Structures are given as structure tokens and as C-alpha cells.
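Team,

Forwarding the record for the chain on the shared tracking sheet. I've put the sequence and predicted structure together so nobody has to dig through attachments.
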Amino acid sequence: MVEFTTILDGLEVAMRIGIYSHEVEPQRVRLSVWLTVDYPEPVRDDRIESVLDYDFVRTGILALADGRHFALQETLCEAVASLCLSDPRVREVRVRSMKVDVYPDAAIGCEIVRGR
């Protein structure tokens, strides 16, 4: 078994997230995802079909951001982790979300790790 880490770092999306009345409008959220992916052998052929195509992670996150309101970043992170673990090659996923505009001097976030 060969292990790779595939990283999607700093994806910014505008989404509806939060519990306060001033958070009814979409706000910027920055997401980073680290996927520990297992392959049966070293990747020797230079073809996307041989590895995890990270487009499905990005596309899935964009759909989540467009499709619903999340009250909590923890719930958002769980949804992203579930999306990533839908690929059976993903053994572990780390998801970080950051609401970047909540405070003028700091971002606020959440990070989770989920695995099989």
C-alpha cells in the first residue's frame, strides 16, 4: 500500500453560514482539505484515472456552499469530510474552515479530522 496526501488549500467561497442575524447574507469562508489517500501500488502512469481527482472535492464544496445554510462551521466541516470519505481510497481527511470577515483583526475557524 502506498500513501499520498492530496491537498486543496485556501479555497474561498461565499456562503450562508452562521447563527447571528447579521450573518444572513453570504460571507467569505476559506476551506483547506488534506486527504490521506491509499493506493495499492506506487503511481507509475501519468494519468488522472490513476489517482484521486481533486476536482470532485472542489466541485462538492462549491455545491455545499451554494446549496444550503450552515449554522455552524463544525457542521460544514463534517459535510466536507463526508464528501471526501465517499471515495473509498480516502483513509483520512482533515478539514479546516475559516470565516475570514467576522472580526476586523482575526479569522475564526474550525478543524476536524475524520477517518475510516
